[in-house]
Amino acid sequence: MKHDLCGLLFRCLMIPLAAGFAGTALAQAWRGTRAQAQLARALRHCTIASFDAVARAVGELCGRTRTSDICDAHVALVAATRGDVLYTSDPQDMRRLLASCGRRRPIIVRC
Known about the structure:
It is a single chain. The chain is 52% helix and 14% strand. It is of the alpha/beta class. The strands form 2 sheets. A two-stranded parallel sheet has the order 1-2. Helix 1 (5-13) runs parallel beside helix 3 (37-43), helix 2 packs across helix 5 and helix 4 crosses helix 5 (70-82). The longest helix is centred in the C-terminal third of the chain and has 13 residues, at 70-82.
């Protein structure tokens, strides 16, 4: 991810809500290098949404929307479940996925 993810997380943490992070998105961004020290600190304050419990629902969402991106589908499902603000670099894909979730739609912020 080329965006300032850790800066964004720190700004989110200023809001008195629990920040959530899809485990698949973490796996996609995490490389375990020293350059990610700020991200590691920010993640201490986040709830990491597990993939295991929703793997089938993510697969079904991919089937309904004809996408193969399980990471995006997982992020959308977590956001739809929580009904939070969703920060994404791809709002168009997220809107399509969220529309198929049939749950609360979070506010989408492009970053």
